[in-house]
Write a structure and sequence with these properties.
- The protein is built from 12 helices and 18 strands.
- By secondary structure, the chain is of the alpha/beta class.
- It folds into 3 domains: 2-214, Glycerol-3-phosphate (1)-acyltransferase, CATH 3.40.1130.10; 230-297, no CATH class; 305-404, PH-domain like (Roll).
- The longest helix has 30 residues, at 2-31.
């Protein structure tokens, strides 16, 4: 009876998915100039399979499945379900909500139901979109899921997706977005591999570097204000090493401390004003700044738990759980210490969040810093669109890694 109900639901999802393919899908294919490869081979597969894709843009879940004959039911972050309208639309196409840092048996049941009905399950193994065009490490939970399901794995690689609309960018650009599909592993191959072996194999299959791909193609991605909001992704000046001194305008990002600047070109590369200090790719700039941030957090001054590492005023706090509608926790100042976050409300209240107990730390969308503490979701969002919450996210993770190390 349950299997029949799920097959019926799958038919409903397929119906609405087809409508979206003909409407929104057509619009997006034209807007982003989408080209696909390997679709015919994937459409010939019978039975259920798992579709894994690298994650670069907001529209990825729909784009990854829109070219396929069957509907894909993607596992999506529960943040996407908090809006009633968005939740209604996602349910129509069979999306499965997933809560980070919370034991989620309901998600596993939903995934198994799709598998048992012969459907396609879509997952983004990185768990979030990348900031610099390079695939992030795969979450270990995804590898366990692959072993659990015991079905073939198909990969979809987005090439040009990052340049079409970088995570940090205010505006999309028009160039070419390629989606490469391929059957990566059969059920028999997955069964024969250990979890460590499968992790390495999946990471190899899904790793994509936009700049390596673009280096011999040099496709132009044209649009307006190409550098706008780039300070969401880069937060340390490569010339004077000042933090939070970068400001973007039109196609240029500039340091207000030393005057260093870099122009964002329509190929996705950078043209720095000072060649000896600048980077020609945002990928290399990001790798460098994360190294600097790690060094600063390891300095003797940063070991002082009473010394603030950095602070941000006018931050809105929201509180919730899973897909529930968020409620306001007020506006105030957010401060990071070596072992905790503190939120000082305008009403004089102070909330303390120990880093060692904060789970599922991540950025939703571009600036919503989320984490769970004692089964409660906290969302912190700055009112300034120029504040880099990516810096906060990386700093918190580095501090958590440091505190997890054994004491010498």
């Amino acid at each position: 009876m349950k299997g029949r109900k799920e097959r019926y639901r799958l038919r409903i999802n397929r119906y609405f998915y087809r409508i979206l393919q003909l409407t929104l899908g057509t619009y997006l294919r034209v807007k982003f100039n989408i080209k696909t490869s390997g679709v015919e081979d994937i459409d010939s597969l019978s039975g259920p399979f798992l579709l894994l894709a690298n994650h670069v843009g907001f529209w990825d879940p729909f784009l990854a499945g829109a070219a396929l004959r069957q509907p894909v039911q993607f596992v999506a972050a529960d943040a996407n379900f908090r809006s009633r309208i968005q939740r209604f639309g996602l349910r129509l196409v069979g999306a499965i909500p997933k809560t980070k840092a919370v034991s989620d048996l309901e998600t596993i049941r939903g995934i198994r139901a799709v598998r048992d009905a012969g459907g396609i399950i879509g997952v983004f193994p990185e768990g979030e979109r990348n900031w610099d065009g390079v695939t992030l490490p795969i979450l270990p939970a995804t590898v366990k899921l692959v072993k659990l399901l015991r079905i073939p794995v198909v990969t979809a690689i987005f090439a040009g997706g990052y340049f079409s609309h970088p995570r940090w960018a205010a505006q999309p650009r028009r160039g070419t977005l390629n989606i490469y599909y391929r059957l990566a592993f059969t059920a028999e191959q997955i069964k024969s591999m250990s979890i460590p072996e499968l992790l390495v194999a999946l990471q190899t299959e899904l790793t994509h570097d936009e700049y390596e791909w673009q280096s011999d193609k040099m496709i132009r991605y044209t649009g307006k204000r190409l550098a706008e909001d780039m300070e969401n992704a880069v937060f340390i000046c490569p010339s004077c090493r000042a933090s939070d001194s970068l400001q973007s305008q039109e196609d240029v990002i500039r340091c207000t401390e030393c005057g260093f600047s870099a122009r964002y070109l329509d190929t996705g590369y950078l043209e720095p004003s000072q060649a000896e200090y600048g980077f020609t790719t945002l990928r290399d700039w990001n790798r460098w700044q994360l190294g600097i941030l790690r060094e600063r957090l390891a300095s003797p001054e940063s070991q002082d738990r009473m010394r603030p590492l950095f602070a941000l005023k006018e931050v809105d706090l929201s509180i919730g759980y899973r897909t529930d509608r968020l409620r306001s926790g007020g506006t105030g100042t957010l401060t990071l210490f070596g072992d905790r976050l503190e939120f000082s409300g305008e009403n004089g209240s102070v909330r303390v969040f120990p880093l060692e107990r904060a789970g599922g730390v991540a950025i939703q969308y571009t600036q919503n810093l989320e984490f769970y503490l004692d089964d409660t979701l906290y969302v912190l969002c700055p009112r300034s669109v120029k504040a880099s919450m990516y810096k906060w996210d990386m700093a918190i993770r580095m501090l958590q890694e440091r505190s997890a190390l054994p004491t010498p």
